[in-house]
Amino acid sequence: MTDFITSWIWANKIEVLGAILGLLYIFFSIRQHILTWPTGLFTSLLYTAVFFQSGFYADMGLQVYYVAISIYGWYYWLKGNKKESNGDQVPVTRFSRKLLLKLVVATVFIYLVILFILIRFTDSTVPVMDSLTTALSITATWMLAKKYIEHWLIWIFVDMVSAGLYIYKELWPTVILFIVYTLMAILGYIEWKKDLKSTN
Description:
mainly alpha
């Protein structure tokens, strides 16, 4: 049994390392630590290779976006507007109604584009939900870079829906991973809310 597990881990070492870094990425983002971004960057680079080898080209494209947003988030957290936090770090904030409207419009547009691509050019069995979780993930990652607390609420929803999709696909290890992601997103929201209250 030990030999089987060792062989499986070695054969899937890139994916395993990506999953471990993915958990660290969420941990660091909960703590608002700058290591969020280099960890996220390496996670995305690893999963770009994993999805390319597996033929999941839409997911690979999403990872390329994550690489770009990780570089942006890294820069913004280091050099962004820090006036409200006395220069220590970019403060946690809430988005305005005006920004909410813009984000909804952008997310719907991204969703429709991805849905069209999946229906027209792939054999996806869950194009509607796959498009929805992908579009929301793009929006939530940008919101994390800007430190809007509401991004955690989006991740809670996305991770729960994704867990359901992976149950449907019988990808049980990934189901467990996304249940962990959901719990960590709830914890992240609670921790960022404390920080938000302390700065008000």
